[in-house]
Amino acid sequence: RIFETIFMGRRAIIKERFSKKYRHPVLDSKLTLKRLNGEARCMTKARRLGVVTPTLFALDSEMHTLTFEYVEGPSVKDVLLQAGSLPGYEEQIEDIAVQIGRAVGHLHDGGLVHGDLTTSNMIIRSDSKQL
């Protein structure tokens, strides 16, 4: 689950990993915490590899949440759906495709694989127009 909030005076997103009721509670807690820590480590490593990621503000191992910087801007999916009606859309789509290719290349060169690589999970920052 994803929630918008204010964290230390800044807009933020909280991502909650909720428990799976079909799992034994002890196993569920261990798996959830392992995934939570893994996601935080991967985002940190991705940033070191040159991939722009939201800043991780906090990890709460008891509540199973990650708190990230709020990134203002449309998803790549929304931009692509609207691009066809705009003049010069081919250039815009090509620029986005190149940015995605570079980011995925950096991840793969660093030994990371994105587990859910979709255009809905990518944001074009309003301030810089970058992925």
From TrEMBL:
Record domain Protein kinase: where: 1-131
GO cellular component: cytosol; EKC/KEOPS complex; nucleus
Pfam families in alphabetical order: Pkinase
Catalytic reactions on record: L-seryl-[protein] + ATP = O-phospho-L-seryl-[protein] + ADP + H(+); L-threonyl-[protein] + ATP = O-phospho-L-threonyl-[protein] + ADP + H(+)
The keyword ATP-binding is assigned to this record: yes
Keyword Transcription recorded: no
InterPro entries listed in its UniProt record: Kinase-like_dom_sf, Prot_kinase_dom, Tyr_kinase_AS
GO biological process: tRNA processing; tRNA threonylcarbamoyladenosine metabolic process
Signal sequence, start to end: none
Molecular function, one GO term: protein serine/threonine kinase activity
Enzyme Commission number(s) from the entry: 2.7.11.1
Alphabetized UniProt keyword annotations: ATP-binding, Kinase, Nucleotide-binding, Serine/threonine-protein kinase, Transferase, tRNA processing
Annotated family: Belongs to the protein kinase superfamily. BUD32 family.
Record protein name field: non-specific serine/threonine protein kinase
UniProt source species: Taxus chinensis
